[in-house]
Design a protein that fits this description.
The chain is an all-alpha fold. The protein has 15 helices and two strands. The protein has a domain at about 15-150: Orthogonal Bundle (Farnesyl Diphosphate Synthase), CATH 1.10.600. α14 packs antiparallel against α15.
């Protein structure tokens, strides 16, 4: 038992460092997967592709599994084996995110991602990136099989990842057909449409999935946590509304990117609120200028947002959402679960980037 004791001390030290280390172990295992006979070229391709697509983000989703599991266990330090499993599930979420982003960037014809060219834009990659996305998704099944097969919750884990992937892909479909280039039609945009896109495209995999992984790892039955799922989805929607707001009102040097929701014809919370509050002449300004790359058109939309006082509308929404979420969290019977939910909420409440 002494060895495990030493490991737990290490695991309690710097979660981020331990988490980062485990990535390399998982990648090594995938590159030595006996189910496929790698050629030197394919081995090198996968090695480079996984580094390029999985790394480079902030790992918030992955680290949330570890943080949530610690809060559920009421422990600052985890035994080495538990720390490893929590980090492994965290990395499965990061792999899922990579799979979504690789394909998302192709569909959106994007140029950069995480400060570098999108994977499909890299010379010699191109449409091979479609197959790479499929491989990334399959890596998750390989990782889960290797480390969780035989655990009582293995089937629930597979089911959870399948369920969340289905919801996210369906949300992406909704987003693509609503904001379709060829047929720009602002009359399609309303708060119900916005909410549905965000709920399915973002909230489930970014907010619910990390906590659901931690609950399964703790031996809990997800069927008993319907209320927790609802709270986390609400939190995910609130997070995306913040994102929409920061895209327009956040300082680029602070949020790390220049917002382009107006130019990109996004079904953003701000445009939905503007449509709801505009009279006919104001609607005309939106219809004529929204989705145009011309800076003068963008400025007309921003001026209309100012005229409609959307900043105040957002601040009101933020404070109402917070009060509602806190009340729902405090109604949860389990204090450790409340702690998990509050830690998520406090990470995002009033964030500036």
């Amino acid at each position: 038992m002494a060895a495990a004791g030493n490991g737990s001390a290490a695991a309690g030290g710097d979660t981020k460092a331990v988490f980062a280390q485990i990535y390399y172990k998982l990648k090594e295992e995938l590159l030595a997967d006996p189910a496929f006979e790698f050629t030197p070229e394919s081995h090198q391709w996968i090695d480079r592709m996984v580094d390029y697509t999985v790394l480079g983000g902030k790992c918030n989703r992955g680290l949330s599994v570890v943080d949530s599991y610690k809060l559920l266990k009421g422990a600052d330090v985890l035994p080495e084996d538990e720390m490893f499993l929590a980090c492994t599930l965290g990395w499965c979420i990061e792999w899922l995110q990579a799979f979504f982003l690789v394909l998302d960037d192709i569909m959106d014809d994007s140029h950069t991602r995480r400060g570098q060219p999108c994977w499909f834009r890299v010379p010699q990659v191109g449409m091979i990136a479609c197959n790479d996305g499929i491989i990334l998704r399959n890596h998750i099944s390989r990782i889960l099989r290797r480390h969780f097969k035989g655990k009582p919750y293995y089937a629930d884990l597979l089911d959870l990842f399948n369920e969340v992937e289905f919801k996210t892909a369906s949300g992406q479909l909704l987003d693509l057909i609503t904001t379709h280039e060829g047929e720009k039609d602002l009359t399609k945009y309303n708060i119900t449409v916005h909410r549905r896109i965000v709920q399915y495209k973002t909230a489930y995999y970014s907010f619910y999935l990390p906590v659901a992984c931690a609950l399964l790892l703790s031996g809990e039955d997800l069927n008993n946590y319907g209320a927790v799922e609802n709270i986390l989805v609400e939190m995910g929607i609130y997070f995306q509304v913040q994102d929409d707001y920061l895209d327009c009102y956040g300082a680029p040097e602070f949020i790390g990117k220049i917002g382009t929701d107006i130019e990109d014809y996004k079904c953003s919370w701000l445009v939905v609120q503007a449509l709801k509050r505009s009279d006919e002449s104001q609607k005309k300004i939106l219809f004529e200028n929204y989705g145009k790359k011309d800076p003068a058109c963008v400025m007309k939309v921003k001026n209309l947002y100012k005229e409609l006082n959307l900043e105040a509308v957002y601040l009101e929404y933020e404070s109402e959402s917070y009060k509602k979420l806190i009340a729902e969290i405090e109604a949860q019977p389990s204090v450790p679960v409340q702690n998990v939910l509050k830690s998520f909420l406090h990470k995002i409440y009033k964030r500036q980037k």
